[in-house]
Amino acid sequence: MEIPRVCSSLVTEGGSLEVDGEGTLLITESSVLNDNRNPGQSRQDIEAELARTLGIKKFIWIPGRKGLEITDGHIDGIARFMAPGHVLLSRPSELDDSVWTRIYEEAYDVLRNSTDAKGRKLQITEITEADMNHIGLDEEELDDINAGKEDAPALTYVNYLLVNDGIIFPQFGDNKADAAALKVIRSLYKDRDVEPVYIQELPFLGGGIHCSTQEVPDPAS
């Protein structure tokens, strides 16, 4: 494949960066502005490098949480661009005093007060996550997670994958939440074939379909 190579000293993963194709980037401070990836680099340093390499004109920084899970809060588990000016935001199944609720609330506040590279206010569509209590875990497994002995599974529906004219869309076994999320995504992506795929192990590894895949660009496009 004859694809130009762009070199950079910046350390990120695919799930760290979410672009709208028109110069706007969603990014979490916790996963990029972090000494475990980019020691000594300031926000200004990182923005300059992403502007150089990706042509980013507008940065929307969401706090996230360092060390909470394996990705340090990748943006692709929190919010995605459905289209320029339109963001899908993952909402916890229950809003409580947990860190996950605070991450969601902080993300919502940032997004509702942000504009994109073209000056548009962002439209926000929320997709409620699956409920850990309804995905087939036994009582012992739930107790271990609630006690902090095991990490909670990543049950966000925004971690889907766009492939050509289709979407590979996660399902977790929470029938009510799965159906509701599928209805939302099909209503938004009317021109794409949405293929629901049940994923059982990936959520317990800290990610989902988008986390475990990598798009390959079409050199002709």
Automatic annotation (TrEMBL):
Entry keyword Protein biosynthesis: no
Gene Ontology MF term list: agmatine deiminase activity; protein-arginine deiminase activity
Stored InterPro entries: Peptidyl-Arg-deiminase_porph
Pfam family, one: PAD_porph
SUPFAM superfamilies: Pentein
Keywords of this entry: Hydrolase
GO biological process, one term: putrescine biosynthetic process
Protein name: Agmatine deiminase
